[in-house]
Known about the structure:
Glucose Oxidase, domain 1, globular, Aminopeptidase, alpha/beta, binds zinc ion
Amino acid sequence: MQKMTPSYVASALAISLALAFPAHADSAKNAAVVKEAPLRAHLAFLASDVLEGRGTGQRGADLTVAYLETQALALGLKPGNGDSYRQSVQIAGVKAQPAESTLKLEAGGQALPISFGKDWVFAPGDATASHSFNADLVFVGYGITAPDEQWNDYKDMDLKGKILVMMVNDPQPTAAQPNRFNGKGLTYYGRWTYKFEEAKRQGAAGVLLIHTTPTASYGWSVIQNSWSGVERFQLASGTLGTQLQGWMTDDTARALFKAAGQDIDALRAAAEGKDFKPVPLAAKLSGEMKAAVRKVEQFNVAAVVPGTDSKLKDEVVIYSAHWDHLGKQGDTGDTIFNGAVDNASGSAALLAMAQEAVRAPAKRSQMFLWVAAEEQGLLGSAAYASAPLWPLAKTAANLNLDSLNFVGATRDIGTQGSERTELGKLAETAAKAMGMHIAEAEPDLAGGYFRSDHFNFAKNGVPAFSIESGREYVKDPAGSKAKAAAYDKRYHQVSDEYDASWDLSGMVQTAQYTLNLGRLIANGAKLPEWKAGDAFAKPRNAK
Ligand SMILES: [Zn+2]
């Protein structure tokens, strides 16, 4: 096997594309070949300390947006929002103030000896600075209403003003029903975002989720880090939730249920069955909850390469990547969360792709969309989907990039989620044309499909998925795999930093693949559709 240097990949690609698509073959002049040099330069800059970790509501965010719109202008892309590259995203910043709060959990007539951060966390879900509670707790199992699974944990019980105690994840497969709630995979009903949304629909005052590492797919420290001592963000309108949102550790939940005279293990077991009914706990939440609340304006950056076909140019393929990361936090040691992989890589890839798309446009238009505040709960893409800059009905697809391959070129490429729509077939075609194959699907245990910006498009009927790194590395497979795995320790840490020695052949390959797939869609005869029966299959939102 020849070494897959970027130039080899590029020339092999040009040849194989010409062979694969004689009908609208990319001639050498017309080929869109993503270059490593600009991708590396954008990556190094976006990940540098100068941008201070691109934190929502921080100075680094303003610098990042200015950089992206300047680059889009310099590349010759058209503004995506009238004469502006910016789309306003109105956000509320909320920081819990546990020291000023007097919130306590009582069971069996006694307050539990628990402390904020270590044992539980809470914050307002409605961007309001002050709340006072005296509310009963009710255990609602998984807290799911799923007509498609004939499942309803609430059984029409009146839960207005209650604090709902819930398990995360969704009902596990049984011998009789191995495929319920997508078997071992996580459905949207299992995501904590769904639980908060459903509690609001039930009229509850608040939610306390019970954390366990297997059900959440991450440890308590992840929750502690993102809920205590930091500002959390939500859209200033439209997605406001219950008054209180929070989590407690498994130990806290055990102590609470015990003090309330309940057997938590028995209740959990009961919650695995359809007949489960909400269980009022002899426990309540009382006291004041205080938080600092401020309004913040952030921006999505949208830039367009108009299509060449007089009719099809009214339709668009959207490539997206979130530009934000965790910013600057704390005041000692390294305080900058550079987010080189997450997601300076995807943002830089979009710029390098846009450079080629301008030079070699397609029949349909192509939008390059850098979204804000992904790390705060996919807020920028949610804001886009609720006020789209291009009609969703004329949006062919969304291809999202988040955290790209910094290790080396691969023989496979991750396209999980594409199989839900006609994009699946096109994804295969694009892979074959580059001499790659689709990475073997892994059970979606952590609900990856619901945790990236493409999901806000999917929810609104637009076929969408995120392109992910392959795992079959061309060079030094074992060593490369180990390098990729070692990133787990740098994920959401200050050590997610750019390293000039990175082999970017895999990142260029992923960007090239995404652009090729986007061009296949943009040059295709018709808009791709959902497969009948998929949980998200519905017509594109009329917005
Ligand atoms: Zn990310």
